[in-house]
Amino acid sequence: MEQRSTSKGKGMKRPRQSMPKQPPEVRIRNFNEVALGYTEEQAVLEAERCIACPKPKCVEGCPVNIDIPAFIQLIRERKFIEAAKKIKEDDALPAITGRVCPQEEQCEAVCVVGIKHEPVAIGRLERFVADYEAEHTEIEAPEILVKKGKRVAVVGSGPAGLTVAADCARLGYEVTVFEALHKPGGVLVYGIPEFRLPKRIVNREVNYLKKMGVTFKMDVCVGATLTLQQLFEEGYDAVFLGLGAGLPRFMGIEGENLLGIYSANEFLTRINLMRAYQFPEYDTPIKVGEKAVVIGGGNVAMDAVRSALRLGVKEAHIVYRRSRQEMPAREEEIENAEEEGVIFDFLVNPVRFLGDENGWVRGIELVRMELGEPDASGRRRPVPVPGSEFIYEADTVVVAIGQTVNPLLLNTTPEIRRNKWGYIDADPETGRTSMPGVFAGGDIVTGEATVIAAMGAGRKAARAIDEYLSNGKWT
To answer: What integer pLDDT is reported at residue 9 of this predicted model?
Structure first.
């Protein structure tokens, strides 16, 4: 039985270690990472707050079931590289999940220390050991002991696809990842800003998979330039679809086609993949004007509004139809936005957009809202207040109210059954679809969710792919 530290939990009553950050007045002028990470001493002090529960609820709260007490124990012993390797037994992307996973809703939400004190900062510790390993040693890929002699195609290089690729490669399969864009990483590179998840971190994790033997083929849009049937004809024995939910939602109101109105998807993709965050070194600026308004209350809205600040707007606003209490964004991201000077306008909702004679947006007509009874999401439903409309000036608007499924591949593959919302109908435990040999997971199945939830779906699918390719049964 694995031994735990005899000093377990000796620092339980110690305050949770704060994460050093760039000062707000500095970071709003750059796209460098906001959070700076723990020092070795901070990591050890935080690890000592863990009480090493005999039945750790934190593991149950993790979608990929990382052995959290084990890697924290290794941090206490200052075995930082061993801690990183321990995490990688279950999570191939710890530097990413340590930064963007909502631990406060998952592992940390059920941390026993959190009952009376602040929960152990599991995500920050995960990030620390992943970064430590990269800075202090040549990252080694696990040895592949058995080659299965079969091929797996992964469509999409987001968190679900990368997880399937890593797990299948570890199991001995020849894996090829097909990505429609010119860089691997999916939403990790086009949807999350540099200041929250640097591109070098994603590249580092992708290179780890390459060391495991995973092949990446970029600029291949499966469903357009290549069909699923052609993948099977080329000799792939199974296919995983990790397409994400990349089609933006709009509000369907008057004036939505005015210039200066972006979907969050377009806004963030332009910044990330066209390197607008490195202007003028890369000559791809984005016109943002003086007053930017972002509509929405989730993490994507926070990313967009904070990006607008860094692009030079004088005022950056969040317009949200509910109150702060109902905002789905991570509390940490809301606090960062508040520190940076973002103005939050709650209980208001757009009615129409107003433009000038040249077709550029110049304002928004908003209506005040009040909260009624809870809806299907469990949050109180916003109800318009009659006669409360007013005009709000804006010369840049970003609509960040969610995304839905891009139908391109699915429209060319009628064999794959979809649910009433248009997402792939796949078994939640195996990822099996209605098309033999095809598995799916992540946002293309569940709709918009978290990075770690997509990775959890990828892990289940990888196990199911191994079972299918081992016994040949499709049931």
So the answer is: 57
